[in-house]
Design brief:
mainly alpha; 5 helices
Length: 138
């Protein structure tokens, strides 16, 4: 399976779960975070379907920002469980594909080249621990 297919399936699946939580959550901060997530997911799907890397990269940045914000500011168990699963999925797909699945277009560089080239696996692992610790204290 190509990375772009994995990306589309993953984003679509997570978007269904995100929409479900968006409809059922009552906490304002969670609604905002989930709403931004859905916007990023729609942008990613549009970019992926049309194989427009410029659009997909915008969704990629939104995805990354949400993965940093939710473990810290998410207020409900459900949203923290969802982000934990998404981070776990991210780590798994990064390992299986030897890279981020958003980088399905090997010929083009990232648009947002100014984002530091961290050890993203370590960064996401840390965010997963933060989300789990927060889950244990809710």
């Amino acid at each position: 399976m190509e990375e772009i297919q994995i990306l589309i399936i993953s984003v679509f699946t997570v978007m269904i779960l995100t929409l479900y939580l968006f409809i059922h959550t009552t906490k304002v901060m969670d609604k905002i975070l989930l709403g931004l997530s859905v916007i990023g997911q729609i942008i990613t799907l549009i970019g992926s379907f049309f194989r427009n890397k410029n659009i997909t990269e915008i969704g990629h940045v939104i995805f990354g920002v949400i993965l940093f914000i939710v473990p810290i500011f998410g207020q409900s168990t459900d949203i923290l469980i969802l982000v934990s699963l998404v981070i776990l999925l991210t780590l798994i797909t990064r390992k299986l594909c030897n890279n981020c699945i958003f980088h399905y277009d090997k010929e083009r560089k990232k648009i947002f080249y100014f984002i530091p080239n961290f050890n993203w696996d370590l960064t996401y692992s840390f965010l997963l621990v933060v989300a789990i610790v927060r889950l244990l204290h809710l």
